[in-house]
Design goal:
The structure is a single chain. The chain is 34% helix and 27% strand. The chain is an alpha/beta fold. It has a domain of 126 residues: Rossmann fold (3-Layer(aba) Sandwich). The strands form two sheets. Strands 6-7-8-3-9-10 form a six-stranded mixed beta sheet, with helices on both faces. The protein has a four-stranded antiparallel beta sheet with strand order 2-1-4-5, with helices on one face. A hairpin with a 2-residue loop joins strand 9 and strand 10. The longest helix is centred in the C-terminal third of the chain and has 16 residues. Bound molecules: adenosine-5'-triphosphate (ATP). Adenosine-5'-triphosphate binds next to helix 1. Keywords: ATP-binding, Nucleotide-binding.
Amino acid sequence: MTNSAVSVDGLRVRRGGREVVRGVSFEVAAGAVTGLLGPSGCGKTTVLRSIVGVQVVAGGRVQVLGHPAGSPPLRRKIGYATQNPAVYADLTVTEALRYFAAVLRAPASDVDKVIDAVGLGPEAHSLVGNLSGGQHTRANLAVALLGTPELLVLDEPTVGLDPVLRDSLWELFRSLAATGTTLLVSSHVMDEAARCDRLLLMRDGLLLAVDTPAGLRERTGSADLEQAFLRLIREQEAARS
Ligand SMILES: Nc1ncnc2c1ncn2[C@@H]1O[C@H](COP(=O)(O)OP(=O)(O)OP(=O)(O)O)[C@@H](O)[C@H]1O
C-alpha cells in the first residue's frame, strides 16, 4: 500500500508476563476507516496503545504519519479515545473540553464544534460526573476530535450506545474520513465491520486476516461478517491440526 498512515511491522508486546501481541504486521490506509476487530482479550487495545506510543513494546517497528510511534511530532496529530474515559467529573462538558483544548493548543472554536459532532449539545453545561455512560463515552470521543487530528485512534467508541447513536457516530466517522482523516476503530461487534473500508481481524495476539468487508465475504463464501470471521477461525484451526 503506497498511502499508509500507519505501518506496523512484526509488533510484539508482553503484558502480565506473556506475549499478548505475537508478531503483527499491517498497514492502515490514509483517509479511510480501518476496523480492528476481534474477541475480547485478543490484543486490540494493546495494538492501539502501541500505535499511539504509550505501550512498551518487545519487538517490531511502528511508524505513524512518517514518524516512529510516540515521537514528539505526533503529539498533536493523533486523537486517541481510550475505553476508560478520563474526562474530569467535576467540570461541565464545555469546561472539560475547554481545558483539553488549551492543553492540546487546539483552537477555542473547536470546543462547540466537537460537542455538536458527538451529539452532546443538550449536555454542554451538564457536569461530566452526571452524564450517562454513553454520554461519557461521547465526551471522551469529543476530546479526541479536538485540534482536527490527522489520525484518530478510537478504542471501542460505540460501546454502550444505543443503535441510533451508534449510527450517528458511524456517520461522523465516515464524514471525517471523507475529509481526509484516517480512522482506526476497534470493536468486538462484527456488525460494525461492515461500516469499515478495511478490516484487521485479530485473534489471540495474531492477525487472522486483513481485507475489505466485501473481500472477506467473498473469500469465506459468507454474506454475514460474523460467520465469515468464524469460518476463518475454523480454517486456521484446521490448518494447525
Ligand atoms: N495492564 C495489563 N497487565 C497485564 N496484562 C494485561 C494488561 N492489560 C491487558 N492485559 C492482557 O493482555 C491481553 C490483551 O489485552 P487487550 O486489552 O489488548 O485486549 P482487547 O482485545 O483490547 O480486549 P477488549 O476487547 O476486552 O478490550 C489480554 O489477555 C489481557 O488480559
